[in-house]
Write a structure and sequence with these properties.
The chain has 402 residues and is mainly alpha-helical. It has 16 helices and 8 strands. Strands 1-2-3 form a 3-stranded antiparallel sheet. The chain has a 3-stranded antiparallel sheet with strand order 6-7-8. A two-stranded antiparallel sheet has the order 4-5. A hairpin with a 7-residue loop joins strand 7 and strand 8.
């Protein structure tokens, strides 16, 4: 156990006049490396004093694939294939960051229709990612506590509604890209191919249907007092901790950190979306605030989807991609592009020496920082609270290790 947490492992009960007469030693356990709270392999090294966590260290690396080294031996189309597998719930956004970095360094201008289509697809993918957490979280919380009257039916309604909404959106994404998770629809210069005929109309219909599902999806989070009590004042994360660890996304905004790259450093078409782009924040910094942020963000993203679809429908016919050479070589130089992914900030530092492969491509993933702060958040909580805290930090394990 690292030194910074080693001092927390020895119990101070013997020195406490109100405590037991005999000193106790904390129990050291390893939670993981495969736990249902995380999608993938994550290990938590915990010190417990009874049912209380006194120290916690996330142990990562079980899914490390050396992706950043693989980037150096692959051309930019192959890099996009690898990049969309980091955050598998937000694959389109992961692809997008690589393409934006390459386009910026090469001076490639994407046609307007391609810009608006990318923005639309990025927001659809954001809703898909958020609904994955909203569908899995209620059953996880309910499974960690004694059952309450009528709670099982409330949990089932919420989880089923989120899963059904995801399927509606999944069908739209599959129709346009051919993939259900790993879309591979971005290219340096734009998008892979033209949007299907009538697709924008089907996007609008799905948006309306998902909006209709939101009261059922969020009902247990907004209106179930037993459920809310399990999240309120649990997993407190301060704004200072957010800034120290680089936490981002809904997890950061729930602690009062009002920052969103889409609004503060616009890319794609976000700078033209005006009031449709609302940044949802809370001040409480607990599990409940994080999930209320996530739930409200779904509504905002659907507003952006509708705005983008309307704008695309009004644009004259034209290409979705710029014309680029069959063998693309990026000019020598370096650049940094970052995006507001579903989980938070994703950064791409690209260094080129003029070849068809990067000399270096470093990825800054949102999940890495969101997991590292667990060492500060978990101590003091009961073992039964771990699932609530872990699920509310919004991470995908493949996005930690790369």
């Amino acid at each position: 156990m690292p030194q910074r947490h080693a001092e927390a492992v020895t119990s101070a009960w013997a020195a406490d006049p109100a405590g037991p007469a005999t000193a106790t030693t904390d129990l050291l356990i390893s939670l993981g490396a495969g736990h249902p709270s995380g999608h993938g392999m994550l290990r938590l090294r915990l010190a417990l004093d009874g049912e209380r966590v006194t120290a916690a260290d996330p142990v990562i690396g079980y899914m490390h694939r050396g992706a950043e080294k693989l980037f150096e031996a692959r051309d930019y189309r192959q890099i996009i294939v690898l990049a969309n597998r980091h955050d598998w719930l937000g694959a389109f956004s992961s692809e997008l960051g690589v393409a934006l970095a390459a386009e910026r360094l090469a001076g490639i201008e994407v046609p307007p229709r391609g810009v608006w289509a990318r923005t639309l697809l990025a927001e659809l993918n954001r809703v898909l990612s958020h609904l994955a957490f909203l569908s899995s979280y209620p059953p996880e919380i309910a499974g960690g506590y004694p059952a309450q009257p009528d709670q099982a039916s409330d949990v089932a309604v919420s989880a089923l509604a989120a899963a059904q909404a995801r399927e509606r959106l999944q069908a739209i994404m599959e129709e346009v890209s051919g993939g259900r998770m790993h879309y591979m629809f971005n290219r340096v210069g734009g998008l892979k191919e033209e949007l299907p005929a009538g697709w924008l109309g089907r996007v609008g219909a799905v948006s309306v249907a998902v909006r209709g599902d939101l009261p059922r999806i969020g009902g247990i989070v907004r209106h179930s007092d037993p459920f809310r009590s399990r999240m309120r004042n649990v997993g407190l994360l301060t704004g200072e901790q957010v800034r120290q660890y680089g936490v981002s996304g809904p997890a950061a905004r729930a602690s009062g950190v009002d920052f969103d790259v889409r609004r503060d450093e616009p890319y794609l078409a976000y700078g033209e979306l005006g009031d449709s782009l609302q940044v949802i924040t809370r001040s409480e910094g607990d599990c409940l605030a994080r999930f209320e942020c996530l739930l409200d963000q779904v509504t905002v993203s659907l507003d952006l989807v509708d705005a983008c679809a309307s704008r695309l429908a009004s644009l004259p016919r034209g290409p979705l991609s710029a014309r680029i050479p069959k063998v693309l070589k990026i000019p020598e130089g370096q650049t940094y592009a970052w995006t507001e992914g579903p989980l938070g900030l994703s950064g791409y530092y690209l260094v080129s020496r003029g070849g068809k492969t990067p000399w270096r491509l470093k990825v800054r993933s949102a999940s890495f920082s969101n997991v590292q702060v667990l060492g500060e958040v978990l101590p003091g909580h009961r073992v039964a609270d771990l699932t609530a805290v872990l699920g509310s930090m919004f991470f995908v394990v493949g996005d930690i290790d790369r």
